[in-house]
C-alpha cells in the first residue's frame, strides 16, 4: 500500500484518489478504500449534459458524495433518485430550492445550468447558507461576478468554480517545470480553443442564456490557460471578430474571435476562440530555454503533451473526479490548490472577457487591471 501511495505522491496526485486508480503491476488492497474523514455532501443544480458527467465521475470520489438534486423536470429527478439513491427530502426545483437552508444533510450546491442563470442561482444558494461550486463562466460579466463573490463572502460560504484543468496532472507538471525555470524566461503563448457548434436552437446560441458566444463557452479555456501557463496576469488585450453566419450567430453571440494579450514580463500571447472550427484544442508555451505543447489541452482527456525534454507521461484521471475530490479538501479542510479555483480567479477571466468584447467592438487596445 505504501509503495502505491508513494508512487502516486511522486506523480503529485492526492493519495485520496487511490481507490479509483487502477495501476497495473501495483498491488491494491481493500484497506485503501477505508476513508473515514469528512465527506462533502453535494447537490447538483441542472441535470443536463455536464451535470450528468459530474454525477458519474463523483461515483469514484471518496471525499465528495452526490446526495441531492435541483431540477425543473420531475421525471429527471425521479431518474436521478433511482440511479444515485437520492432521498426525496434532498430533491428541489428552481422555485423552492431556497429551502435548502433548512436541510442539514447538504453542504454544497454545484450549479451546472446555462451561464446567464449562474448569477441569480449562486446568490440564492449563498443566501441559503450553502457552499457553492459554479460552472464556468462563473457569470456573464465582471460586474455580476463581483456581486456573486460579495454575496458568498457576506453569507460566509465558499465560492469555487469548475476549473477542472487546475487539477489535471500533465497541466500541473508544465506549471511545475515553468516554476522550476526549465523553460527559461517565458516569451510566448498560443491558445486555440474551438469546435463547430450544432443545433442552432440550443441555449449556447441564445445571448439571454449564454451571455455571449464561443468566448463564454470555450474561449475562456484559452484565456484561463494562458494565465496558468505563462504564470502572470495580462496587462492589455486587442481583439478581432469574424462572423460568417449572422443567422446562427446573432447579435451578441460571437462566432470566432482572435485576440492577443501582453504580460508584465513582456511575454505576448495569441488566441483563437471559435464555434465554427473543429479540432481546435491546443496550447503552446515557449520560453528562452524550451517549450511545452499540449494537444488536446483542455478536452476531457486524456490530455497529451510534450516539452523540449520529451513526452509528458502523468496518468489520466477523470477530470471531474479529481476536481470534486480536491474541492472537498478545499471546502472541508481549507486545502490550497496549486492554481486557485475561487471566485476571484474566475472574476479575472470575466474582466478579460469584458475587455475582449470591448476591444473587438472598438478596435482599440484595452488596458487590463486584474
Ligand atoms: P445542458 O444544456 O446539457 O444542461 C443544462 C441544464 O440546465 C439542463 O438540464 C436544463 O434543463 C437546465 N436548465 C435550467 N434552466 C434552464 C433554462 N432556463 N434554459 C435551458 N436550460 C435550463 O448544458 P451543459 O453542457 O450541461 O452546460 C451547463 C453549464 O456547464 C454551462 O455553464 C457550461 O458552460 C458548463 N459546462 C462546463 C464544462 C466543463 O468542462 N467544465 C463542460 C460542459 C459544460
UniProtKB/TrEMBL annotation:
SUPFAM superfamilies attached to this UniProt entry: Glyceraldehyde-3-phosphate dehydrogenase-like, C-terminal domain, NAD(P)-binding Rossmann-fold domains
Domain (GFO/IDH/MocA-like oxidoreductase): residue spans on this chain: 174-292
Alphabetical list of InterPro entries matching this protein: Gfo/Idh/MocA-like_OxRdtase_N, Gfo/Idh/MocA_domain, GFO_IDH_MocA-like_dom, Glc-Fru_OxRdtase_bac, NAD(P)-bd_dom_sf
The keyword Membrane belongs to this UniProt entry's keyword annotation: no
Domain Gfo/Idh/MocA-like oxidoreductase N-terminal residue range list: 40-163
Keyword terms: Oxidoreductase
Gene Ontology molecular functions: nucleotide binding; oxidoreductase activity
Any Pfam family matching the protein: GFO_IDH_MocA
Entry's family note: Belongs to the Gfo/Idh/MocA family.
PANTHER family in UniProt: OXIDOREDUCTASES, TRANS-1,2-DIHYDROBENZENE-1,2-DIOL DEHYDROGENASE
Protein name as it appears in the record: Glucose-fructose oxidoreductase
Organism: Pedobacter ginsengisoli
